Amino acid sequence: MNIAQVSRDDLKLPRRNRSPRRVQDYVTITLFLLPAFILFLVFLVYPIFRSVYYSTFNWNGLGPAVNFVGLDNFKQILSDNIFMTAVGNCLLIVLFSLTLQLPLSLALAIMVGRDLPGRAFFRAIFFMPYVLSEVITAIIWLGLFNPDPERGLINAILVLIPGVQAQGFLGDTKVVLLCVFVVLTWKYFGLHMLLYLAGLQNIPREIEEAALIDGANQWQMIRHITIPLLGSTIRTTIYLSVLGSLTQFNLIWIMTKGGPVNASESMATYMYRFGFIRFWLGYGSAVALVMLLICLVFSIGYLRLVRQPDYLGGI
Amino acid sequence: MLRKLLVLVSLVLIASFVLTACAAPAPTAAPATQAPAPATQAPAKPVVPVLVPTNTSLPPVKIVWWHISTADAHKALFQQFADQYTAIHPNVTIEITVLENEAFKSKLTTVMQGGQPPDIFQSWGGGVMNEYAKAGLLRDITPELDANSGAWRNTFAAGALGVYGYKGKNYGVPWDMGMIGWWYNKALFTKAGIANPPATWTELLADVTALKKAGITPIALGEGDKWPGMHMWAYLVTRLGGEANFEGALLRTGSFTDKPFIDAGKMLNDLIALHPFQAGFLGATYGDEATAMGNGKAAMELMGQWAPSVEQANSTDKKGIGANLGFFPFPAVEGGAGAISDAIGGGNGFAVGKNAPDAAVDFVKFMTSAANQAALAKIGVAIPVVKGGEVGLTDPLMILVQKNFAAGKYFQLYYDQALPPAMGSVINDATQGIFAGKLTPEQACQAIEDSAKQNLK
Lengths: 315, 457
Known about the structure:
By secondary structure, chain A is mostly helical. Chain A contains 13 helices and no strands. The longest helix of chain B is centred in the middle third of the chain and has 24 residues, at about 225-250. Chain B folds into two domains: about 60-175 and about 345-405, D-Maltodextrin-Binding Protein, domain 2, CATH 3.40.190.10; about 180-340 and about 415-455, D-Maltodextrin-Binding Protein, domain 2 (3-Layer(aba) Sandwich), CATH 3.40.190.10. The interface of A and B includes residues 24, 32, 147, 176 and 278 of A.
């Protein structure tokens, strides 16, 4: 009993000293977190709830919203062919990104990750497009894609080839989405490449050497060592790439405005067209919520699905 | 000690963040003008008589002005207006923002939804302006117009001023009013063996074929922007149905699926079938269209009175095609109810934002003086709407447009401006569908009618 008493005192003594200190620590932490948290609440959380509110109105953005329509906006979105086209286009871009853009980035990363002469130069070159803003990128490519061979570089080169005519590119409903995808790839492969490069540096040399000693060839090395060990990086890039494709706006809006005739419409350009061009802010809010929902479902589903062991974690 | 300091610093930071986050984006209370002005915050409340010399200068006023006149000569003239005005009124500063047309529309929409319009901005009047007026975002300038028994009001051509009125009140004034018509390259027409510009739709189609044969792009079109092509359809509707047809659809006694609207789409398809446009026209902008015309790469374009100046600005040599440029009104349609003198057009104007100071209205009045109207006409960027302004009109093409405009009995404001913005956008989208061959005339008209049911009540 005596001992217990003593030990309790022993425990108490420092605690009495610590407790106001801890409170102070918490206060400091809270105070430092508060600015960011308030900004987050005001500019992210609050607008989402505001959108939910507006999405139930037929509202043109000017003056207070009064014309309550319940879930009509959502019904209309889901029955609108143009929205379905937009979703389809986004999914196509996702598909292309995953099957073309990411493998290309990985291939390049493996190439410039090696001890090639001039690799620093190539790294810089490949990463450069990513540094440009999307607006500038779009304007550059608008010029390149210009259908007039005297003003557009690509067509100027194309017409030099005998039998080839100038192409409409962004004015052609059949190829416009492909053109947009080319620009997206040009802009973003550098980012993915950089992420892969960082991942590659984490792969211990010993494993590769061991494989070499075991007689593995280049392809086997990549297939059985590099790619599995890059797993977590690959999962991150897929995540970034899909979300980026689903919410793509700037490039498309500047280059094509989602046209011609909705051929390159993305969900975001659709939202902008209805919200800000047609002044249907209520409907636009509803579209934004549908987008949010799609992205959220993907994010949660994806994170659940790919929760795999990280091989490098065990080393 | 250090901790206390940290807490203090973070408290200050938080307080400042909270304050900036919660504060309504009020119009900059104290504009940083050059004039040193003590205690400008509360000029309206003379609570304490501070010893400030009152007669030396008026309180500084800032006017925010957005316009879209990007052509060099025009931009310079607008700047000159501002300079002249501020020279007479040293307490006024004018902050000009020049925006490209499409960028202006997006940006204006955003600030309007934020409830903070610029003091003076470009407007085309009609349905879009009415929406802003309805929402109380514009300043009613009727009192200024009517002051001194309508001294200012009476300087304007009544029809032109009417476009900037809504329910008997004026929210802006025009500085230009003209019409859309075909601008053509005389040299290319001659090259294709065409002696006179077409007077009927059939002749136009024949001329397009002749131009194609001569290896010339007949029509430049920036259909990526949608409105350039929309006017082609709108003109056909006007020629086919006349005034009664559009009025009927607008007042809901008729419908946008009435015969003239659909037939216009069919006739447009006849033209489209000849492939008269430059390659990639569906993705091209109006800027591309003007460039093609200015560089002599296409034989004609359907455009408003501003076409020559934009063609010049966009051409490689900044001169356009000079004397080769001609103008003819939209051809008559055989059997149509509309007359060839009926015109679709509109013009440019200044709208006044709700927070505009009196000086802004005064500045607008200054800019629409006969002398300044003549100055605008002189550089060929406007057709004056103020009596006495027409003396500046020296360009034979502009005089031609003005004559055509003045001769018409039925004047139709651009569809996409006359109707509410939601409908204007639908009409633009639907006609682009026709141009791309994605929508039949019936489908396009149905889309417009669906939108009319929602928006015209």
